[in-house]
Amino acid sequence: MVTKAILFVCLCSLLTVNSQKKYPVTFEDALAHPFSPEAFKGTWISSNEYIYEDDNNLYKTNVETGENTTLLNRTVIDTFNLTDVLVSEDGKWVAIEHDKQSIFRHSRTSLYTIIELETGTRYVLADGKRIQLIVWAPVGAGLVFVMDNDVYYQSEADRLQ
């Protein structure tokens, strides 16, 4: 009885494969790359959230709830020569990296503007001096940044005024 069931499943799967339409792959298809996967244009900011930019805005998406939140609109994005966006751990602040300058191979400096998402208030980090690296603290809205090869810690983003 088990042998008959296995034989039946195998025959059905062969019939299903043969019933599908097949198209030949041409040389032009190979050159045009129609079989390439679509690229993921987002950045994971936590285990269940990522940010992505489309033609209009910068969004945060929660994959568990499906909720989409607008972080920055196009007018804010177009104000800066945007390189990267870093969201604070508490989700209340955004650090915008802009006006990047390469120094040597993989090193660079940039200007950073911190934006409070709730009010839209902007703060310029380090009085507009060029920064080598910035990282949000793992809790809250603290910042660590490197300027002129020195490491600085700012306990709260709103103290940048």
UniProtKB/TrEMBL annotation:
Keyword match Signal: yes
Source taxon at top rank: Eukaryota
Cellular compartments per GO CC: plasma membrane
Domain Dipeptidylpeptidase IV N-terminal: 88-158
Pfam families: DPPIV_N
The keyword Signal belongs to this UniProt entry's keyword annotation: yes
Signal peptide start and end residues: 1-19
UniProt GO MF annotations: dipeptidyl-peptidase activity
Any one GO BP annotation for this protein: proteolysis
Keywords attached to this entry: Signal
Name used for this protein in its record: Dipeptidylpeptidase IV N-terminal domain-containing protein
Species: Graphocephala atropunctata
Phylogenetic classification of the source organism: Eukaryota, Metazoa, Ecdysozoa, Arthropoda, Hexapoda
